[in-house]
Amino acid sequence: MRLFGSTIAMKSADDGASSPSDQGSGPRRKIGLALGAGGARGWSHIGVLRELEASGLKPDIIAGASVGSIAGGCWAAGKLDELEDFARSLTKRRVFSLLDVSLSGAGLIAGKRLKSRLDNALGDTRIEDLPVTFAAVATEIGTGHEIWLKQGHLVDAIRASYALPGIFEPLFINGRWLFDGALVNPVPVNACRTLGADFVIAINLIADTRLRPTVIHDNAFVEAVATETGATPRARTGLFRSQFDKSAAGAPGIATAMVDAFNITQDRIARARLAGDPPDATIGARLGRIGFFDFHRADEMIALGREAARKALPEILEEYEMRIG
Known about the structure:
alpha/beta; 9-stranded mixed β-sheet; two-stranded antiparallel sheet; 11 helices
């Protein structure tokens, strides 16, 4: 399924997966890991990757969107320790200190301080030199094309993949201005399959029960009908009170509105794409109480990621054996 434009893969010189190794009587089938978007919730990817490593279930192919590209790229480059140390060191004050204000008008945050951190960890690593197949998903501004960054500077690809519109400045790569990949493919299962995965495990960070689609009828219409018929309208509570009652809390600020709109959009796109191309297995931690910018809660999120992977592993291994044999 394609949403908001077509899919374009920027190919590397060598499209082969990293290392099919002999297992039993034949080569081991390739495992793909689709690391989803989700802001600060992405620190849970670290816990998932740790648990998969401990079980011996290591991916041959990784596709990541937004924060998923950070975790996936660092793991592929052998730098997950550095990413985990950085994540665990964050406090609210340190998170704020990393946000350098942009004067370009293209985004609120220039991202130079974050780039410096990535450069220190990953250096000049190129995607095509990684020991596993990796792709960072981004979105082209204007066309809405889905871009798979499969070659070039790893840090640039990661930065393009997490460039949240209005927050981070976009990146200009190969003649294209690129934004956050979550706008078109929040959990890139299809990228893993296209890159050669036989069995795809999806890590979905935005499967939040708060965002389950439903239809709520306009309360004003209900009250009008009640007035005309003489019925007593039901008191407005919960969602209606906070959203429609002027005497309740004020309207959300611009940052809250932007993040909530982005979360809702990601959720709807992810549901549609996963329904059209479902993964072979899914790992989903209970992250509903984690805010989009709660980067200072890494300890909690890494633990939740490990717990979710640990619970899912028996079923994943059973499914792998059944499908792959």
